[in-house]
Specification:
Shape: elongated
Number of helices: 12
Distance between the termini: 56 Å
Bound molecules: S-adenosylmethionine
Structural class: alpha/beta
Largest sheet: 8 strands, mixed
Oligomer: single chain
Number of strands: 17
Helix content: 25-40%
Length: about 400
Amino acid sequence: MPEPLDAALTEVRALLLDPALTRAVAAGRRRGQRPTVVRAELRPVTLKAGPRLQISTSDGARPYTRNVAPGAEAGAAVDALLAEPFGNWHVETADATLQLRVTKSGEAQVHRAAASRPAPEPGGHDRAKDWLLDPGDPLFAEIGGSAAKRRQVDAFLRALAATLPDDLTGPLRVVDLGCGNAYLTFAAYRFLTGRGLDVDLVGVDVREDQRRRNSELAGRLGWAERVRFVAGTIADAVVEPAPDLVLALHACDTATDEALARAVRWGARWVLAAPCCHHDLAAQLRSRPAPEPYDLLTRQGILRERFADVLTDALRAGLLRLHGYRAEVVEFVDSRHTPRNLLIRARLIGTAPTDAQRAEYRELVGQWGVTPRLATLLADPPSLTAPHQPASVGAPRPDSPTRRA
Ligand SMILES: C[S@@+](CC[C@H](N)C(=O)[O-])C[C@H]1O[C@@H](n2cnc3c(N)ncnc32)[C@H](O)[C@@H]1O
């Protein structure tokens, strides 16, 4: 039954300012009226300075995130949002969920329910939690994704958080290569903007239908100006300006090599790539005898495949080192959530490779008689023939993100 709007909004206000708030979203518009922002989201965060209410708004073009202190500041910010003619409010606290829809006649249709799941700890950048992005975040209602995919994405974001400097500031250009349904793309955008960064993100996938779907989703989220999608191959898609940060989650087979090669060519400062299936080196190992005395490693098909996986990622990391990156291969998520749980994580340091690095790479490919796809894409690392100052490295680009002084 419809209720007076003012009374219902007073109830919403109390919930928004309640310490038990877990999240709230305002969106839509009332008949004949238009809010100044298309969407607003509120959630508690815990910063070094203490608890804050994080308010993220979007005017349809640019997101804006701020953290307000509890008390008068939060009260004023909440009052300003409640004065906007939003058509819907969705508010969740530890104890209850309230959904308010403004009817055509300007009354409130309110649905109240007891909380259906335990409340998460207030979010924060500096405390241990099970999740970096709460799986109940309204974002996931829009982007979907299985529980396993959410877990992978969350773990990937943790690895990202551990890679970027804490004091990073300035605009950050990001690309997600082989983005598929863009779960990681959208989650990364939410996470990075939540850290207060000004993010411009491009998702690349060879499938045009994915581009259309993802672009529509970005529009619905109010992020269309900052999260764009391009249909094209990872090797050739036009991404301008060049990104600072390259992400790739389970880009198939040698698409991961394309992603790493593009990252090197762009001179990206950070690269996180979780490889998927590896067929290229497995086929090369199958077509020739193993060097003595390693025949036992590749005689059985399953061992050959697993060995090819290890060899592929070891050589990828080795090649990145030859191109000025500090590279490591880590497990980013438990294998319960995906057997493809390795992550190649690299940071541009811009130093020339050592003789030992050149030699270890050369000897490994030489002994096994393989040509990694990444080496071909990088057109035979010059480091193999002569001491080499990587062409694509050096000082960060003048317009790249900086660290707070
Ligand atoms: C296994 S899906 C992973 C999608 C997404 N990153 C995720 O983890 O949910 C791999 C995606 O990469 C895309 N892809 C494969 N090879 C590609 C290439 N060479 N260029 C662009 N996209 C590619 C596929 O179309 C597919 O959407």
